[in-house]
Amino acid sequence: MIVQAKQQQQEYRDRAAEMLAAAGIVVTGREKAAMELADFGLDEFEATGLAIVVYENNDRYCAKELVMFPGMTCPEHRHPAINGRSGKMETFRCRSGEVYLYVDGPATPGRKTDPPAAPGGAYTIFHEVVLLTGDQYTIAPDTKHWFKAGPGGAIVSEFSSTSCDEADIFTDTRIQRVPD
Amino acid sequence: MIVQAKQQQQEYRDRAAEMLAAAGIVVTGREKAAMELADFGLDEFEATGLAIVVYENNDRYCAKELVMFPGMTCPEHRHPAINGRSGKMETFRCRSGEVYLYVDGPATPGRKTDPPAAPGGAYTIFHEVVLLTGDQYTIAPDTKHWFKAGPGGAIVSEFSSTSCDEADIFTDTRIQRVPD
After folding, report:
1. Residue B178 banded pLDDT, cuts 50, 70, 90
2. Within chain A, what is the greatest distance between any pair of CA atoms?
3. Residues 118-147 of A with CB under 8 A from B
4. pTM for this model (two decimals)
5. CB pairs < 8 Å spanning A and B
6. A164: closest CA among A73, A52, A88, A70?
7. Is B30 left (phi over 0), alpha (psi -120 to 50) or beta?
8. Which H/E stretch holds residue B31?
9. Close Cβ partners of B160 (under 8 Å, ≥ 6 residues apart)
């Protein structure tokens, strides 16, 4: 699900495009216009959302840029197997800013940040990986993860196997990742 | 095969790292040190070569940056099927500078550039695709292609299925893409 109001969409896309430009990442006008503004149906895009430029998504691999405003969170989810094919595997590479990534493992004491306000049980894993600009981390298929941009926002390149967002399973039961 | 002399390697890596930095692309010290300097065994790296930062290469997908000095060429080759698995499929996205890519199809009249000096038959396809910064093109498996950086050099992000360089088949029969 994406942000609904047209003017708001334009403002968010402009802002994300400015962040890409500031990081030296060139996208075409068509890519900017097609930028997905995922709000996960929660209608709180600046807190829980992602602005996504999909460069390529075919039956073998996928590449995207994820633009995150300051403190923006991509909520906890996993990528299950689909039709007997192993779930999506993905590598996050921080291109600008910093990102706090949470993956399976023991909770990190004194972690950098908290999830956005959400019903109990919406966030369950708190093992922290800090990605500064130039750092990357690969998520195994079907394992839970969530991530939040630092105070200056972040741009994350996602390299992965085929992307099939509709199949994602979110811990927050309010979320259904249905494309518009 | 890679450039042999240690001091020359260092100079090339420094130069490639400067180009990455100028394009706003941050790589770690370890990634810079591990940068592959592919000269395809021709010992003419600045004419026929690639400086390669491999971000990730697993059994599902691969992501690299290809740094090309001005006028540098990646020679004509194709990615055959391996063990019954379709050959590598790859997307080239020009991140800085410009690239002249040649793919299957009718020869382009008045094309932008020529291949480097090579024995007859080393370059056979001349259908041109010009990639400016922000443009991209996807190469089908097992189809011939070669590409050359413009006069200011270029940086190309390569998103692909698993990379298995040793399997590549070059039109120039002098070339065997054997890793050191």
Report:
1. low
2. 44
3. 133-136, 138
4. 0.95
5. 79
6. A88
7. alpha
8. helix B29-33
9. A61, B61, B62, B63, B64, B88, B89, B90, B91
